[in-house]
Structures are given as structure tokens and as C-alpha cells.
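Re: that backbone. C-alpha cells:
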């Protein structure tokens, strides 16, 4: 039995999707990021960085979302959420996962918390959005020729990107109007994983 520390709309939703898809037994502990529960002593005792997601399995406490996702994909191989990592396809899926979880998510974090970078919030937000646009352009170009980020099979990178698509409202433009492939991509992804309630509602 896993325990996921989770807040809907946060990146812990990618882990939630994987738990739903694999059918792994799990329970949730809610950490309300809007109410600042991630900074309370009770949660900091579990993850001193005050970040979601956290996955607990028995005595083990796992942090860092990307690592958790890869761990679960390897433990629950039947779900086929990552190709064999020691292959070209596996490496490509890993690259995309890192692109989304680190580069793209990183720029969104600046928009969510501009105060951590500079008192000039507008400049931080504008610069971050410029970087996000470059990365989204690359994703949209990629989806011109393939169904999913790493090819014609979905992977963890797509589940993480689905979560990021849910953050579009913080941008100054409509994601689905600007990027012609995103709406059909999301539909195809949802069709691949009907068991994930979280993905269906993103
Ligand atoms: N990649 C890092 C960062 C994850 C992250 O940024 N989590 C966000 C939610 S999407 C969070 O918990 N933010 C709370 C905060 O920064 O106060 C990790 O997995 O620990």
C-alpha cells in the first residue's frame, strides 16, 4: 500500500495518475498548497523541502516527483508506462520526462512564485512565459509528426505534460488556441488511460 501526499492540480497529480493506471493500492493524504500546509511542521517532518509529491511505501519515504514516477513505472512494468530505459526509445522518453518535469515545470514555478526570484514580479513572469513559449513551440512541432512526446506510445512524459496543460490559465494566452495539436493530443492520451480518473478530469 502506497500513501501519496497530494494536492489536486499540483505535479503530484502525475503520480496519482500512475497509481490509478497501474491499479496499485494507495491512499491519499491531502496537503493544501493554497493554505500553506506544505510549510507546516507536520509535513516538513516528512519532506524538509516542503514540496509535493511524497510517496510513502512501508518504512520508505520517497520525494522528487520524476524519480517517483520512474520508480513506479519500473515496479509496475505491466502498465508499460516507460520503454526499456537502456534503449533508444527509453532514453528518448527519459529526455522528454526531464524536459517537462525540470525545464517546463521549472519555468511555471517562477510564475507561481515570482517573489522567490525578484520583487519585480512582472519581469519574472514575463521572462518565464517567454521561455515557456519556446518549450511549448518545440512540443507542438514534435506532435506534428507523432502521437505522443516520445513516439507513438504514451509514456510518463505525457502524463506529466497533461498536468502542466492544466496550468495553462496562469499564462497570458489560451494554450489550446495557440497550439493546434494540444487539444487532440490530450484527448488521445485520455483515451489511452480510461482508468485514470485524474487524467480524465485534467
Ligand atoms: N521536482 C521537485 C519540485 C516539485 C514541486 O515544485 N512541487 C510543487 C507542486 S507542483 C510544490 O510542492 N510546491 C509547494 C511550494 O513550493 O511551496 C520535487 O519533485 O520535489
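Recovered sequence:
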Amino acid at each position: 500500500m502506497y500513501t501519496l501526499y497530494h494536492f489536486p492540480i499540483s505535479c503530484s497529480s502525475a503520480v496519482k495518475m500512475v497509481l490509478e493506471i497501474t491499479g496499485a493500492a494507495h491512499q491519499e493524504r491531502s496537503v493544501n498548497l493554497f493554505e500553506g500546509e506544505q510549510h507546516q511542521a507536520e509535513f516538513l517532518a516528512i519532506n524538509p523541502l516542503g514540496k509535493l509529491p511524497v510517496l510513502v511505501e512501508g518504512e520508505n519515504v520517497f520525494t522528487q516527483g520524476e524519480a517517483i514516477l520512474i520508480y513506479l513505472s519500473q515496479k509496475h512494468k505491466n502498465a508499460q508506462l516507460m520503454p526499456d530505459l537502456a534503449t533508444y526509445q527509453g532514453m528518448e522518453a527519459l529526455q522528454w520526462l526531464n524536459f517537462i518535469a525540470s525545464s517546463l515545470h521549472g519555468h511555471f514555478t517562477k510564475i507561481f512564485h515570482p517573489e522567490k526570484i525578484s520583487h519585480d514580479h512582472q519581469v519574472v513572469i514575463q521572462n518565464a512565459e517567454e521561455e515557456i513559449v519556446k518549450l511549448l513551440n518545440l512540443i507542438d512541432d514534435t506532435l506534428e509528426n507523432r502521437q505522443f512526446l516520445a513516439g507513438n506510445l504514451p509514456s510518463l512524459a505525457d502524463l506529466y505534460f497533461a498536468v502542466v496543460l492544466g496550468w495553462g490559465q496562469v499564462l497570458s494566452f489560451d494554450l489550446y488556441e495557440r497550439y493546434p495539436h494540444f487539444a487532440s493530443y490530450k484527448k488521445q492520451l485520455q483515451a489511452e488511460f480510461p482508468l485514470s480518473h485524474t487524467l480524465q478530469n485534467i
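Residues 10-11, 33, 38, 50-52, 63-65, 109 surround glutathione (CB under 6 Å). The longest helix spans residues 88-112.
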